[in-house]
């Protein structure tokens, strides 16, 4: 393990090089927000230093000062080579997008200029023929367009950027280390022009600051102008401890009157969730505006139908239906049904006649599953998802 400071090269950053035991993180069930079974983080910690980042919370990030210290997995490429190689004896890969980004470190934070781990990882993804979903806040991703194009030609690449709003001034307060929303939108337009599927993760909106109808509409309008394929929406979590303390310092400085409002919606939930009433109110605002602008609120089926296994397609569609219903305040058994299917040891198709034996699957769910098995989609899903 080596610790070194490269403050002469990258401002105020301390780097710790470590040897990782594994790189690919496999989810127990396909992740229906990203359409992914596997994720990877090549760096741990993030000098983008977004004020709301939950990577700062105890339990996520243990080493050093979040925002300044970055752990680099220096052997990541050797490990990934072994993990992706078809020669390795293990259960076969589940077809889905490999997710690069998310978690507690942006793959295109400044350290990538030095180590190029993301670039090297993409070379392997290309060599071993996987589709990939990139999620970042950094325009540095443009440097890898050559490899991304190759992957996109053979398989598929989704390029997503996350935003808390498209307001450059607010972003400068809460996202001090990343290019402005205007720059991010320009980069998305660049990738769209180059034939990539692109999306906006409007996550997290910042309570009482970027969750207003005006700013949500502003973001959706821009997404439509750029021709994005979807906008995915989500509220902010705020865990007690380091994350909340850090966030409140900035909040008090720029929006002192809002601290009382925050105490009303963040009432000490273990996961840092705000109250259900708050989330349902912002979800309703988002749904109404997204429907007006006819922008998909989940990754469209057309982008993954040809990639996923039949069972995973069913799981994702059911979970998307679950999302649509729950964010409209309606009850839904579909998430539970999707979970039951993810636990099956045999293919769903082999159970065609016995679907109602599965937990959470009643008559209506059975009908939806059969339709997906027969024609690869569901009319109920289309009705709900149609913006
Ligand atoms: S870019 Fe993402 S991981 Fe990095 S600080 Fe911001 S929210 Fe956290």
Sum up the overall morphology in one term: globular
- Please identify the structural class as seen in this structure: alpha/beta
The main sheet comes to: 7 strands, mixed
Number of helical segments with 4 or more residues:
14
Task: Give helix and strand order, one letter per element, not per position.
Answer: EEEEEEHEHHEHEHHEHEHHHHHHH
- Parts with pLDDT < 50 across at least 5 consecutive residues: 1-10
Number of domains: 2
What would CATH call the class of the largest domain?
A: Alpha Beta
**CATH-level-2 architecture of the largest domain:** Alpha-Beta Horseshoe
| N/C terminus separation | 51 Å
Task: Describe this structure as you would to a colleague.
The protein has 14 helices and eleven strands. With 387 residues, it is α/β, with parallel strands linked by helices. Strand 1 and strand 2 (14-18) form a beta hairpin. Helix 11 crosses helix 13. It binds iron/sulfur cluster (SF4).
Short characterization:
This protein has 14 helices and eleven strands.
């Amino acid at each position: 393990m080596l610790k070194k400071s490269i403050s002469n090269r990258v401002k105020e950053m301390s780097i710790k090089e470590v040897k990782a035991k594994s790189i690919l993180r496999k989810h127990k069930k396909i992740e229906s927000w990203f359409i992914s079974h596997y994720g990877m983080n090549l760096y741990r910690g993030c000098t983008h230093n977004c004020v709301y980042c939950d990577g700062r919370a105890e339990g996520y990030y243990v080493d050093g000062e979040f925002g300044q210290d970055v752990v680099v997995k220096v052997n990541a490429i050797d490990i990934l080579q072994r993990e992706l190689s078809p020669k390795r004896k293990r259960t076969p890969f589940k077809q889905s997008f490999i997710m690069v980004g998310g978690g507690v470190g942006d793959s295109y934070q400044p350290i990538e200029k030095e180590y190029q781990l993301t670039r090297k990882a993409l070379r392997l993804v290309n060599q071993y023929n996987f589709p990939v979903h990139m999620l970042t806040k950094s325009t540095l991703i443009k440097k890898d367009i050559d490899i991304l194009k190759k992957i996109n030609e053979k398989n598929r690449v989704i390029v997503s950027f996350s935003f808390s709003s498209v307001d450059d001034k607010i972003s400068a307060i809460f996202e001090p280390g990343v290019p402005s929303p205007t720059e991010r939108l320009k980069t998305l337009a660049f990738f769209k022009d180059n034939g990539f599927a692109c999306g906006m993760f409007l996550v997290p909106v910042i309570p009482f600051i970027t969750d207003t109808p005006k700013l949500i509409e502003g973001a959706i309008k821009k997404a439509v102008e750029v021709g994005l394929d979807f906008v995915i929406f989500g509220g902010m979590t705020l865990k007690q401890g380091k994350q909340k303390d850090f966030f409140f310092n900035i909040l008090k400085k720029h929006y002192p009157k809002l601290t009382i409002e925050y105490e009303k919606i963040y009432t000490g939930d273990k996961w840092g969730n705000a109250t259900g009433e708050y989330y349902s109110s912002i979800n309703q605002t988002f749904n109404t505006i997204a429907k007006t602008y006819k922008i998909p609120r989940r990754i469209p089926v057309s982008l993954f139908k040809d990639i996923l296994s039949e069972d995973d397609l069913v799981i994702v569609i059911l979970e998307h239906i679950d999302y649509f219903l729950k964010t409209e305040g309606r009850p839904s058994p579909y998430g539970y049904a999707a979970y039951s299917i993810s636990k099956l040891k045999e293919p769903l198709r082999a159970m065609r006649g016995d679907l109602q034996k599965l937990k959470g699957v009643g008559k209506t769910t059975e009908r939806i599953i059969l339709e997906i098995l027969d024609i690869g989609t569901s009319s109920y899903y289309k009705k709900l998802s149609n913006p």
